[in-house]
C-alpha cells in the first residue's frame, strides 16, 4: 500500500502529513506494509527541507521532519500510489487535471478521512505559529481516519 500527500510546495502541509502518518503507522505496527511520501504541485521548493516553522511545530509533538526534502508531483506518481491525497481544493483540482483516465488510485481531499469531506487543510505559510499548530491538529485527525481505512483494507482479503 502506498500513500502520497500533496500540497502546493511540499514544505508545510504535505511533509507534516507524511511525518505524522509515518509515526502513526509505526505505532500501529503497519510501517512495513505502507509506504508514505509527499510532494508539491509546483517546483518552487524542490530539494528544500520543510519550512522551519513546520519542523519546529512537528518537533514539539515528537515528529522529526528534518530528513524530508521537497519534490514535485510526477506523472509516475499516479501509477505508483494507491492514495493521492490533496491538502486543499486547488491541489485536488490540479491532481484531477493531470491524472490519467482511468485512474485506479484513490484521489481526494485528505480530510475526507477525518469525516470532513469538503474541508481543506489551510496553508499556514503566510501566517503565524498558531497556523502550524492548527494544521497539526487537522492532520492528526485525518491521519487517524486514514489509518483506520487502510488497516481495514489491509485486513480484507482480496
TrEMBL record:
The keyword Methyltransferase does not apply. Pfam families: LMWPc. One of its GO terms (molecular function) is protein tyrosine phosphatase activity. Residues 1-149 form the Phosphotyrosine protein phosphatase I domain. It comes from the Bacteria. Its EC number is 3.1.3.48. The active site is at residues 7, 13, 123. InterPro entries: LMW_PTPase, Ptyr_pPase, Ptyr_pPase_sf, Tyr_phospatase_low_mol_wt. Coiled coil: none annotated. CDD domains: LMWPTP (cd16343). It is an enzyme of class 3 (hydrolase). Keywords: Hydrolase, Protein phosphatase. Belongs to the low molecular weight phosphotyrosine protein phosphatase family. This is protein-tyrosine-phosphatase.
